[in-house]
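Sample A.
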Amino acid sequence: MRLALVRLSTVLLVASALSCADAATGPGDFLNSPFATNATVRFVDIEGGCWSLDTPQGHYEPINLPAEFRVDGFAVRVSLRAAPDMVSICMMGRLVRIDDIRAR
């Protein structure tokens, strides 16, 4: 039984690592440069409330969404860059810093 649990844990760890690697290099990868796109601001009522940006390229979690843009359903144009040095309890998508944001 113990050996089966160790094997299962190993399989899950490898699968998790592979999915993270795919996410880091998949479409919409902008780790080395800013990324501009249209987005819709979304609020999800988990962990005390989490904000996300829904874009055609995927879902992103901003670490610095200005208060005046914290309106669920707000259509915006944003310039984003990756925030690999940050962590979040929300886990709504890749963490990003907003360089520029405006209503569209």
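Sample B, a different protein:
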Amino acid sequence: MNLLEIAHVPALCVSPDSTVMQAIEASLPTRVGAVAVVEGDALVGIFTERDVMLKVVHGKRDAETTRMHEVMTAPVIHIVPTLAPREVLSLMLDKHIRHLPICKDGVRVDGMLSIRNLLQFLVNDLTENLHHMQNFVGADSPGG
């Protein structure tokens, strides 16, 4: 499984000099709760809904003038697209992370994985496995 199949692709990216308001306005149509902060092609931070609340609102900062580099979370934990979904879920739960950038090369952002997308995938996978098990156990004759 490639995690990019269930992630938001392409990830929404802003520069470190973008304002909070620019990041919020860019993210609203996508309904994704996090933007990657990139300089050139390199991931340098992440800005999430939690950052808005804790660093901007609670910090009484002006969203029109505050720059990403002032309030982004850095360094950023990121993942490669080939990790197992259950391994990623453990990481997200252990670190209290709701969004993870996916970087094939460890530098450039290829997608943004949300815990919601990951949980939906895992629920669908478990449901499918349960259905197969029920069919197997419910088979009433040898061979099927």
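Observation for Sample B: The first strand starts at residue 13 and ends at 14.
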